[in-house]
Design goal:
Keywords: Membrane, Transmembrane, Transmembrane helix. The chain is of the alpha+beta class. Helices cover about 25% and strands about 35% of the residues.
Length: about 850
């Protein structure tokens, strides 16, 4: 009872701590379409059973199209009743002006209509299909319009499939679908809601249903909410020499200026990346100098020379070039902006030659002349690495944060700055507005701020500048008060002063943020472009540090670990105690689901069994730890004890939690007794060794793209028994005899990592044992003794392997043996159980043999 109460309290606490709102401001399911190969396209499979066949069926959902795709053609919905009639909503942009059409059976109905493209691509559109069986009439409602057809020979059904996008369901399978977004799928009869799938998940293949827990399944999902939370890599490229950035919000184009060409990334183009060589020849660039796009022109700022080069997009050439330039700028990480009211470019701050700058410079485009401004008002502390943004006209600039000193001298008390300053172009005046609060780690800003004058808010990117392996974090703050919040996930960012640069831009038409990072190394610059849909989702849980790690996940993880370990200590007497001691962790790895006939599914499962028995392309975690290459070579012997533990930490957190593990967590487990610098060095060396070993496997690599160390595995090529185990136990309602046999094949190698003992591993081991027992017991409840007594005996023996005093297994085995007439074996089973029970609990089992057979 003590464990049950503590577990219950912890569950409630975790639910409060980790719960996400069902309806966030941005949610839905996106569908991959013709832009990917057929087996990567999205399928949403929803089902309805035991529906009143004579009553009207009302199906509704929100629909929008994903912009900037080449092909818009195919099935949006196939509604299949009792496998005897299909009602389809399709989009056909080939034939005529009415692209949305209804198909009933194999015939086009008379229902066809359009939704204005601007509305279809930019807004959610509520569609409703009303199936009137009594009057044999079908009606589609789109906005305020209704389209109907009667006499369509509707067939009454009690079971329905709602197949959105691609599907492989019997004769209704298709791979043609337009790129669209979907949310709030509802089915009703007689004004009573039967099912509602909000599609408000962050991740996963299971689609929760809110009325009757009639969950659906999705393959290859593009969860919209995650695109408002998680930055997505759009482009990665490497250019020779130095590079600089500029952005045109009108065309949503990023300009990457290199020494020999202009590279453009256009958000709204089906071929977004283009490279145009300069007709004017090579352009020498200075590390740390900057560029901007304004007044429909591209400008490169040679700050030290007080010069500006202008680029002609049409002629593909620069009007100026310089030779014998400095190795790096004397004004690195300055801020710049364009003011429309006086058609001038302004620069503020910067750093060079061990001096922080407070200078304000103006370049008048009309006269092509620079001048130094002596600002009035409040003191602007010399700094660099601040964030700057302006209002629409550019006559009011906001500058926040940075790093500098009051004297400007690097040697005299440099520090992080957190003041928000406003610069008025007309009066040339600085005004200090407030200081923002440092919640934990010191930080500076990426170069730009996104200003929303209407809402009086700003967006900016912050990062800890004292780290090489840093992370960018988006924040949303107020222009009127010192409040801000973290939004979106972190972006990995390598920072090394003038060799690194980061900027953020906003695309008003596409409603998305772009972050671009530059990192120069070995005379090359790596460019990465990330995107995040707007509005960005806030971090829902309290965060103890923004610097690449959301520590609340680790707090909650430790709680779960503690509870799992406690649950594993006690083996309960009764079923209720068994249930109370089971692990609180729920596997996030979805079940592998096939929508093919049963024979094909059994064939696939048999293939899994073959791989389990093969010593090629395999990672075994049950029994002895073993890794086999495609050639069958075992590479486990190359793992030192430290490398083995490092590998297990990363692979288990990668497979089980889907996210990986932070550097801080690795330090906490493996190098807790070392200084931060020493731990970092040890981690770097061993990570490199582990990468080299994993490269031998193929189809398996170590990454840190999300800010967490994660082992990416192609499970179609490499068999990982722990991953297969999770697929089986994660959805116990889908268990069948074949899966149970497959689970037994996995456990026949031995207990989970049976010869390895680490304190942090105990929770994983306890959970595995509990989940396997739960799976066996739950499946046994679906079999009667008359159906398969021999198999129930086998199940009981498998349970005893993990829990020798499991009461349910003992009763199951005794009853099955008695049913087969093996009464003495049943009595021996009971007596052996009773002896073991007394050894463990110090008291006799309270029931007798005859009572358990009743």
């Amino acid at each position: 009872m003590r464990f049950f109460l503590s577990g219950l309290i912890a569950v409630i606490f975790l639910n409060i701590l980790l719960v996400q709102p069902v309806r966030a401001q941005s949610y839905g399911l996106g569908f991959y379409s013709h832009e990917v190969v057929q087996d990567k396209r999205t399928t949403l499979d929803l089902g309805l059973n035991n529906v009143a066949p004579k009553d009207n069926l009302d199906v509704s959902f929100d629909l929008a199209f994903i912009p900037n795709r080449q092909i818009y053609f195919g099935y949006i919905l196939r509604l299949v009743g009792d496998d005897k009639q299909n009602i389809d909503l399709v989009y056909d942009n080939q034939a005529n002006t009415k692209h949305l059409k209804i198909i009933i059976g194999e015939k086009l109905s008379k229902i066809s209509f359009n939704i204005d493209e601007k509305i279809l691509f930019n807004n959610w559109n509520r569609l409703r299909i009303l199936i009137d069986f009594k009057n044999d009439k079908l009606t589609v409602f789109a906005g305020k319009e209704a389209f109907s057809e009667a006499g369509v020979h509707l067939k009454q059904s009690t079971n329905y499939k709602l197949l959105f996008g691609a599907n492989a369901y019997r004769q209704y399978q298709t791979t043609d679908l337009p790129p669209f977004k979907l949310r709030d799928v509802k089915v009703a009869q007689n004004n009573k809601l039967l099912s509602w799938w909000p599609l408000s998940e962050w991740q996963g293949d299971v689609v929760p249903e809110t009325v009757n827990q009639n969950n659906g399944l999705v393959t290859n999902p593009l969860w919209i909410k995650s695109r408002h939370r998680n930055w997505q890599v759009e482009q990665e490229l490497t250019v020779a020499g130095n590079a600089s950035l500029a952005f045109d919000p009108a065309t949503e184009t990023v300009y990457i200026i290199t020494t020999d060409s202009l590279i453009t990334y256009s958000v709204n183009s089906t071929a977004p990346l283009k490279n145009n060589a300069y007709s004017s020849g090579k352009q020498l660039l200075i590390p740390g100098d900057q560029a901007l796009f304004s007044n429909n022109k591209l400008y490169y700022l040679f700050i030290d020379q007080k010069a500006i080069a202008t680029y002609s997009i049409n002629d593909q050439k620069w009007d100026k070039s310089f030779k014998n330039l400095r190795a790096e700028t004397n004004n690195g990480h300055l801020n710049k902006f364009f003011c429309q009211t006086d058609t001038s470019i302004y620069t503020i701050g910067g750093y060079g030659q061990l001096v922080y700058k407070d200078s304000v410079k103006q370049y008048k485009l009309n006269t092509a002349a620079w001048q130094n401004i002596k600002p009035k008002g409040d003191t602007f502390t010399p700094r660099y690495m601040a964030g700057l943004g302006t209002n629409a006209m550019g006559d009011t600039a906001y500058i926040i944060g940075g790093y500098g000193s009051a004297s400007g001298q690097q040697i005299v008390n440099p520090r992080n700055l957190y003041d928000m300053m406003r610069f008025d172009v007309k009066t040339k005046t600085f005004k200090k507005l407030f200081n923002i609060e440092v919640k934990n780690e010191d930080f500076v800003f990426a170069n730009s701020l996104i200003i929303n004058s209407k809402s009086r808010t700003y967006y900016g990117l912050i990062f800890p500048q004292h780290k090489f392996n840093s992370n960018l974090q988006l924040i949303q703050g107020s222009l009127d008060k010192p409040t801000y919040k973290l939004v979106g996930d972190t972006i990995p960012y390598l920072f090394h002063d003038v060799n690194a640069y980061a900027d953020i831009y906003y695309c008003p038409r596409s409603s998305k943020f772009l972050t671009v990072t530059l990192f120069k190394q070995n005379e090359q610059t790596r460019v990465k472009i990330y995107s995040l849909l707007s509005p960005p989702e806030p971090l829902e849980t309290p965060v103890l540090s923004y610097g690449g790690v959301n520590y609340i996940w680790w707090i909650s993880g430790l709680l779960v670990v503690g509870l799992s370990a406690a649950a594993g200590i006690t083996i309960s007497r009764k079923k209720k105690k068994n249930e109370a001691s089971r692990s609180l962790l729920v596997p996030v790895v979805p079940e592998i689901v096939n929508h093919t006939p049963e024979q094909k599914e059994q064939s696939i499962e048999a293939d899994h069994d073959n791989k389990l028995n093969s010593n090629k392309n395999a990672i075994f975690l049950f029994g002895d730890l073993q890794l086999f290459t495609a050639e069958g070579q075992e590479i486990t012997k190359y793992f030192t004890p430290l490398l083995k533990e490092l590998f297990l930490i990363i692979v288990l957190y990668s497979i089980k939690l889907g996210r990986g593990v932070s550097s801080e967590k690795l330090n906490e487990i493996l190098w807790f007794d070392k200084s931060e610098k020493s731990a970092r060095n040890n981690r770097s060396v061993n990570i490199a060794k582990l990468k080299s070993l994993l490269d031998k496997m193929g189809h398996c690599h170590l990454s840190k793209d999300t800010g967490y160390w994660k082992i990416e595995i192609d499970y179609n090529e490499i068999m990982v028994d722990y991953h297969t185990y999770l697929n089986i136990v994660s959805n116990k309602s889908k268990l069948n005899k074949q899966k149970i046999i497959q689970l037994t094949h996995i456990t026949q190698r031995g207990n989970f990592l049976s010869n390895i003992e680490y304190e942090w591993l105990d929770a994983f081991k306890s959970e595995v044992s509990n989940e396997i027992i739960d799976s066996y017991i739950q499946f046994s409840s679906t079999i009667t003794i008359a159906d398969d007594a021999e198999f129930l005996i086998k199940l009981a023996n498998d349970i005893f392997y993990f829990d020798p005093v499991n009461e349910d297994a003992m009763i199951m085995k005794c009853k099955a043996l008695s049913y087969l007439g093996k009464h003495s074996l049943a009595k021996n089973t009971f007596e052996s159980f009773s002896k073991e029970y007394k050894v463990i609990y110090g008291e006799g089992f309270e029931r007798d043999f005859h009572s358990i057979l009743e």
